[in-house]
Amino acid sequence: MRKHSLLGILLLVAASLTAGPRDYTKYVNLFVGTAGHGHTHPGAIVPGGMIQPGPDTRQHGWDACSGYYYEDQTLNGFSHTRLSGTGCADLGDFLFMPIVGKADIQYIGEKEPDAQRMPYASPFRKSEEKAEPGYYRVLLDRYRVQAEITSTERAAIYRFTYPKGEQAGMILDLDYSIQDQTTYEMDFEAIDSYTLRARRRTGAWAYNHQVYFYAKFSQPFTYEVVRDTIKSSKRTEPRCKVVLHFANMQQPLLVKSAVSSVDYKGAEANLLQEIPAWDFDGVRRTAHNKWNAVLGRIELPANLEGSALDEHLRIFYTAMYHAHISPALATDVDGRYLGMDLKIHQADAHTPNYTVFSMWDTFRALHPLLTIINPAQNQAYIRCLIRKGEEGGIVPKWELASNYTGCMIGYHFVSLAADAYAKGQRDFDTHKALMAGVRLAEYDTAGITQVLPKWKLRDEIMPAARRYKNELGYIPCDLTGESVAKALEYAYDDWCIAQMAEGEGETAIAARYNQFAKAYQQYFDPTVRFMRGKDKNGQWRTPFDPRSSQHRADDYCEGTAWQWTWFVPHDVDGLIALMGGKNAFAGKLDSLFAAPSEINGAELSPDISGLIGQYAHGNEPGHHTIHLYNYVDRPWRTQELVDSVLQSQYRNAPDGVSGNEDCGQMSAWYILNAMGFYQLCPGRPVYSIGRPLFPEVTIHLPGNKTFRILTKNNSRQAKYIKSVKLNGKPLRRPFFTHEELAAGGTLEMEMSARPTRWGR
Known about the structure:
This protein is about 30% helix and about 20% strand. The chain is an alpha+beta fold.
């Protein structure tokens, strides 16, 4: 027996030495969020990649935001740019479609607004579709062509396997786009019989989006260019398709492609430098390794496979995947990029240019997560945003393709900067960051880039609400929309400015913005105990219904009074006092989760989703709310509600996200809370303890340090905390600091099937 035991041990040791690094990518399900209203896609991308090639199944409608919808059964082709998890749509540039026989590119004359399928589209079967981090494959039934895609940061490589003996071809659709974009310009040129390039400039959510394209083929082609126009209800639209023909196709066709927002030279250099050889499998391996390194920054035990937590293991690493898609790189290999002034600039290696800053969503959890697992990258984003403010005159609040979309409310750059600042992560010009924040908060339209449409400047970039806040002291609901939501977000953002100002020794700025931070108090109506609109005469808006929603046309933003009343993350004690103390506050909070889930109104906001009572997890404004119980001596309520959300709002399924995934925010909420904590107020470096899902979590920190979270007696039923130790010492408060986490160490929790007195 002893000989056999020794042999077994030796075999295990030998296996561990030859097994290689753990493969985290196998837990990722790229189809999570591609159904419902998650708006994700299964494209073949690398972390933060500039190029995002993948399948396109539809163009129109809200669920076409990423270009792909899981329930669709036909595929239009493969475009090279797209968004993931957003509530608005754009991009979808340069669509490839491999074909056999004659190209079906006839036009339909008058445009059909709901037409999702191009004439050349092909049916496909889910059983013939595969997606994993960095790789996508599908069989096109109409043409019997197998398409495979993988990519680097700036370039993609395709492998198309055609049926033998058939006339092989390819459509490059230059006018294809996601949603109803206006095409301003389209150009095409064949450099030689193996190489082509193209350019297009469009306007939609990004009002001036220009992109250049360069592609090389492993087989020679001949081509024809077909141009036409069609009429829509609003305008005449140009159309341009390039049809490529290949002779004697005896082996798979390889295609390398790249994009640039600068010029053709940039696109060509991106391709030649990043994919110099015809090595599809090598590019795929490299993409896989990049994802494995990113996913492994947080380590869950391998023995969870096949256990009761197997589903959550897969949800967790899928969330890690979604949390690393954007912001996306937007710099060519030579360092050039398109700035916010729509001029070409040169970046230094320390601060590349990035795009897709969905900060209304991501300031809440994604950027706080990055301050833990990749603070250097997060600081690079802050430096990039400061530079964008210098180029365009003001830091954007939702930037896309170097365009000021003006989307959403608040000015949450200050949250990113203040949170990093408070955590001692200051590899950026802190004074510039402070003054950029002040510039955002003041009503001043001077000096903002002239390329910006004037209506966008007036209505979205520098709205009158900021002037009312500064001059009147509050935002009248009869003079501007979403007044309550804007006021509450401004109050939080102004608090962030005050925190940085105090650190920078700017006492006058700190005093002014600390006063602004208290403005939320003016919107609390004690008679109804909700945040409520107030008109220019100081009167409460009537009638008042806390369940009422008129999408983007009421006093709130994608929510109701039920959801927005709690948005005072920077002054929870002040909000508790307004509501009459801890017991009254807790009672009101209980009513949020117990209230009927009906929403009233003629045009309900579709973003109000994932309802538990009137708590809406499918949208961001309430993401901190569950953790408010820790401030009123009821931590067991935080624990059971976190558990409820983790179990009910996330699934390993195409419709496994309760709302738009929103560029990593929904995923980051899950990651943090599944580990057992959440940062309620970015800018205050304190984590609120909730309910850990896993028996063990290891966070790999910078400097080769680790922070481990160990949980004893953890099960589906045992969701309450009995005791906590931090580095061996009892922790009796339901909070710990970022400093304690960043130093490395161990957080040990023991769980119970019943609520306990821990953390009161």
